[in-house]
Every structure is written in structure tokens, then in C-alpha cells.
């Protein structure tokens, strides 16, 4: 939906994603997607990370290992504590970039432009203690790498198939899959 709301972003993602499609030399039709290429695309990776940051909310559950006082409340050993990921995912001190508050979707939040690098690079804007759409610690989702790959492949296929009348951009260059 974030892409559907922004035709310029949709076109930029489409251009980037199409570099991962492999074309059959005989038919000149796109036949497969190179997952490694998808994983290296900075805008796609930033977009996926930003969507997970803003639109995935889970509760992280931890067992108290030693008595602790939190805002005047004593928590005893063995008690379970839950915290919603929204607290960290929307932290202005971590995610806000001038002109782009943490509560706002911004696809380029995790892209770094440097003079040393010829092309923009994907760089996580926050740290591991601020981003955990797949949970954390020993209970972190074991399928997170597979899930990230499936999200990127699905998004690439959708972006490649969106028609001009929907996104209002010229897609005559892109093959119909």
C-alpha cells in the first residue's frame, strides 16, 4: 500500500527490482528472479525494513531474572514482562531524520549516500536494540531470513506486474510476466 500511494517511489522500486530479473535469451521474457541481487538492492531493502518497522507490532516477552524496580513497581524473579515493539520502532531519538519523523513512512530512511561509495547503500538507521519485527534473543523467529527473502521476492513480482493504469507511470519498458 505504501507503494500504491506514491507512484514516483513505485517507479524507482520497479527500476531497481527489474535488475534482478533474468531474461531468457531465446524468448526475451523474464523467467526468474535472482534472490541475491534482490538482497543487494538498497531501495528495496530500505523499503522492506521501513515497512516492517512501521507495520509490524508484536509483544516481546521476557522473564525477570533478578528483582528489579521499574517506575516504582517491584518486579520479582520469575515474573513475565511484555513490551510492544512499537515503543522502540517509533522512538524519535533513534529513527527520526530531519524532515522525517519516526511515525512517518519514508522509504529512504535506511539508505546512505557517501562520496566513497559510487552507489547508495542500505544501512540500518537504528540498531539491533531498536528494531525487532521478528522478536529477539533466544525466541527470535528462526525463519526470519527466509521470510525476508520471500517478502522481497513477492514485492518484486508485484512491482513488476503492476500496470500503468494503476500506478500512472510509463511501464512500457517492463516485460509482462
Summed over residues and divided by their number, the pLDDT gives a mean of 86
The number of helices is: 7
Side-by-side strand order of the widest sheet: 1-2
Task: Specify the CATH class.
Answer: Mainly Alpha
Structural class label: alpha+beta
Topology:
Elements: H1 7-17, E1 21-23, E2 30-33, H2 35-39, H3 42-55, E3 59-63, E4 68-70, E5 73-75, E6 80-84, H4 86-89, H5 92-95, E7 111-112, E8 121-122, H6 144-161, H7 164-167
Antiparallel strand pairs: 1-2, 3-6, 4-5, 7-8
Describe, in plain words, how this protein is organized in 3D.
The chain has 177 residues and is of the alpha+beta class. The chain has one domain (7-167): Cytochrome P450 (Cytochrome p450, Orthogonal Bundle). The protein contains seven helices and eight strands. The chain has helices at 7-17, 35-39, 42-55, 86-89, 92-95, 144-161, 164-167, and strands at residues 21-23, 30-33, 59-63, 68-70, 73-75, 80-84, 111-112, 121-122. The strands form four sheets. Strands 1-2 form a two-stranded antiparallel ribbon. Strands 3-6 form a two-stranded antiparallel ribbon. The protein has a two-stranded antiparallel ribbon with strand order 4-5. The longest helix has 18 residues, at 144-161. The protein is elongated, with a radius of gyration of 20 Å. Residues 164-177 have low confidence and may be disordered.
